[in-house]
Amino acid sequence: MGTAIYKTIKNDNIDVLIDTHTLQSRITELALEITNDYAGQHFILVCILRGGVLFLSDLMRQISIPHHIDFMAVSSYVDGITKSEGRARITMDLLTDIEHMNVILVEDIIDTGHTLKHVLNLLNSRSPKSLRVCTLLDKRIRREVDIEIDYIGFEIPDKFIVGYGLDDIEGYWRNLPYIGVNK
Ligand code: IMP
Ligand code: MG
Q1: Which ligand is nearest to the CA of 48?
Q2: Strands 14-18 and 179-182
């Protein structure tokens, strides 16, 4: 931690893009959709660390049917203002064998789509029974690859956002209970 940059400023340079209430009520709707779609089936939520962790925890507690969860981590590199994972790399893999399982991939945000494409290819190679994608945020205007997304929380404009699991370049602001945008 020797060279870490510590934030001493408050979050007063961040505007609220999606407030806590709006966020939570949309997550409740998504959870209800998933509950209805997967009734009577076994499924697993796969969360992409680290950004997806707040979304997963709120989503899963609103899903009223039994399910499993697991985690995987994908490396990102910084390309100027936005972080984009043109070359995604799995840095932590699932513990679960997903063969013959219904899988829902839980993502914080889909930007260019490269990360998701990479993860989907990998998971598909393991022969799940089904594979769907649930993202909280969709920055669709930035998309570079063609991917199908089954559950979308919010479509957002091309702005660099932080909060609710998402960090800035220095790894901060994940703890904000809302989606914010730098002023
Ligand atoms: P993609 O491969 O370009 O779709 O990148 C997706 C990943 O980039 C996300 O999972 C985030 O980790 C990161 N990312 C993209 N846009 C933002 C943003 O506005 N704020 C914070 N992280 C972002
Ligand atoms: Mg992510």
Answers
A1: 2
A2: antiparallel
Ligand 1 atom nearest the C-alpha of 167 is 21
Fold of 2-168: Rossmann fold (3.40.50)
Domain boundaries, the chain: 2-168
The 10s digit of each residue's pLDDT in 166-179 is 998 888 999 999 99
3-state secondary structure of 35: helix
CA distances from 122 to 74, 93, 119, 136 (A): 12, 10, 5, 21
Reply yes or no on whether 97 is catalytic.
no
Q: Which of 111, 138, 150, 167 is catalytic?
A: 111
C-alpha 77/C-alpha 73 separation (Å) is 13
pLDDT tens digits, residue range 84-110?
544 678 899 999 999 999 999 999 999
pTM listed for this prediction: 0.90
Distance, CA 20 to ligand 1 centroid (Å)?
A: 20
From the CA of 51, give the closest atom in ligand 1.
12
